[in-house]
Amino acid sequence: MLQDVLNFAGIAVFACSGALVGVRKDFDLWGILSMGAATGVGGGIVRDLLLGITPPTSVQHWPNLTIAVVSGLLTFFLHPAFKRLYPAVLFLDAIGMGVFAVSGALLALEHSSSAIAAVLIGITTAVGGGVIRDVLAGEVPLLLRPADLYAVPAMCGALAVVIVDGVGWPDWTGLVVGGIFATGLRLASLQWKWKLPTAPQRSLGRR
């Protein structure tokens, strides 16, 4: 039950972030709702397709997509307030990322995936919606930009689930430990501007 509540909250926050990008790009109502829906449930749909769950859960059942669309609609009308609450949105986004990373990894393990596949599917679940959002908006995905850490915290959270499963501890232990670790690392990277190193720049002289 707790995992479902956190999952719904994560969908709502991600959908709001996608809809805000649509507002910034001056999309119409349909475009904004599409951006919100794609961001909110995109990662979960990709996860389900990788696991052979067809139709994907968000397509087969109404709650996930409905929450994403309603969140996008609220953003359409209330986006000035959402912009003022951007720090809170970032905080909730970090929680959603952690929840999606660990839930994706756990679902992969439940479908007899290998450890490496579970970690990769956990990362995909966490970042997939954001990648789809950025591609639809015509931007370089945040995942590939030298910005704050995002995929790395997701990987750590998914890895924690795999490790806990490997030692035989209860599933909820991996969800809690992995979720807290992934969320905490993401928030720390935002607070202290942690980034991965980029390639050193060098000037190319003419011959």
UniProtKB/TrEMBL annotation:
Pfam families linked to this entry: Gly_transporter (PF03458)
Domain of life: Bacteria
Alphabetic keyword roster: Cell membrane, Membrane, Transmembrane, Transmembrane helix
Topology of this chain in the membrane: Multi-pass membrane protein
GO CC annotations, alphabetized: plasma membrane
Occurrences of domain Glycine transporter (ranges): 5-79, 91-164
Residue ranges of the TM segments: 6-23, 30-50, 62-82, 89-109, 115-136, 148-169, 175-192
Entry keyword Cell membrane: yes
Subcellular location: Cell membrane
Major localization listed first in the record, in broad terms: membrane
Family designation: Belongs to the UPF0126 family.
Protein name, entry field: Putative membrane protein YeiH
